């Protein structure tokens, strides 16, 4: 069940927002170390582990798949669909940086005499499993898991995606939360860190978790009016229907925030578009009639008009 939930967090047949596959491959291979497989150094890798942020060859991708999605989540650069947030994770990390984490204690001499494209598969598999499952070549974490979790809660609000990966690889819990239920993803959301939000999701963080007010990460993105974070959460299955302790959905919260960027993202994700009515050009003045809680369903003057999106056709 966990494997299916994790696997569902990567789009397969959605519109590609990360550019054409050839351009995407060229961009990702241009990152330091990505011209070769992160594990055996076979040239021009065409596969990726999206939760590890590395490019790998066909043979090593089979080994990664065999370890399970809780360890490595494999996607093809050419055959699978990608969206912008996944591409950003890959561009921020890359083989050289990630190997600094997973091969931190591996002597340079051993690296030079390690596995290569000609190494038999069984030897490659032993090495890859030792590297990622056993974490045999990583530095020992400082402190226990509670300490790692505390550092993760502190680190997700910063800018270092690599440090977040390091903490997760050392055993920090992607779903760790403070006493009031505010979890690592919510903190990353409130600091507008969409790439870290994506990495947490790819590492098993629950997009539907609620804090003590019943608010999900999408509620927090809506309140802060962070459109990129909201877009990522919606793409990864965050519910639009969850109501907090005040009875408000993320769309209700977005409608009451300043700016209107997150509101527009949420409305468009419903297959609708927003057009300002006469008297206002502020999308955040009011929610749609269906989300105002008004018993009459009527909208006050100045409410943004919510219309069927032209690519979806008329609704009902």
UniProtKB/TrEMBL annotation:
It comes from Hemiselmis andersenii (Cryptophyte alga). Keywords: ANK repeat, GTPase activation, Metal-binding, Zinc, Zinc-finger. InterPro entries: ACAP1/2/3-like, Ankyrin_rpt, Ankyrin_rpt-contain_sf, ARFGAP/RecO, ArfGAP_dom, ArfGAP_dom_sf. GO terms for molecular function: GTPase activator activity; zinc ion binding. This is Arf-GAP domain-containing protein. SUPFAM superfamilies: Ankyrin repeat (SSF48403), ArfGap/RecO-like zinc finger (SSF57863). Gene3D superfamilies: Ankyrin repeat-containing domain, Arf GTPase activating protein. The keyword Zinc applies. Residues 22-146 form the Arf-GAP domain. Residues 276-316 are annotated as: Disordered. ANK repeats lie at residues 180-212, 213-245.
């Amino acid at each position: 069940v966990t494997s299916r939930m994790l696997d569902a967090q990567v789009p397969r047949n959605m519109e590609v927002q990360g550019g054409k596959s050839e351009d995407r491959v060229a961009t990702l291979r241009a990152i330091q170390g990505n011209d070769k497989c992160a594990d055996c150094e076979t040239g021009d890798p065409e596969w990726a582990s999206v939760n590890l942020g590395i490019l790998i060859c066909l043979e090593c991708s089979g080994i990664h798949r065999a370890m399970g999605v809780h360890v490595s989540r494999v996607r093809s650069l050419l055959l699978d669909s990608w969206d912008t947030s996944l591409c950003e994770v890959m561009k921020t990390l890359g083989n050289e940086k990630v190997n600094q984490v997973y091969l931190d204690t591996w002597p340079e001499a051993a690296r030079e005499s390690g596995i290569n494209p000609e190494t038999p598969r069984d030897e490659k598999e032993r090495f890859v499993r030792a590297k990622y499952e056993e974490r045999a070549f990583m530095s020992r974490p400082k402190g226990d898991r509670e300490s790692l979790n505390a550092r993760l809660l502190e680190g997700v609000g910063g800018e270092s995606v690599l440090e977040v990966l390091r903490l997760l690889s050392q055993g920090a819990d992607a779903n760790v939360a403070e006493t009031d239920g505010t979890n690592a993803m919510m903190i990353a959301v409130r600091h507008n860190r969409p790439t870290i939000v994506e990495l947490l999701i790819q590492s098993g963080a629950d997009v539907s978790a609620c804090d003590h007010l019943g608010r999900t990460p999408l509620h927090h993105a809506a309140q802060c009016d962070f459109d990129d974070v909201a877009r990522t959460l919606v793409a990864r299955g965050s519910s639009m229907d969850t109501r907090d302790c005040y009875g408000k959905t993320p769309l209700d919260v977005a409608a009451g925030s300043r700016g209107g960027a997150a509101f527009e993202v949420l409305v468009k994700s419903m297959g609708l578009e927003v057009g300002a009515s006469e008297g206002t050009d502020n999308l955040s003045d009011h929610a749609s009639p269906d989300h105002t809680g008004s018993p009459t369903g009527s909208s006050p003057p100045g409410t943004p008009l919510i219309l069927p999106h032209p690519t979806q056709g008329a609704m009902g």
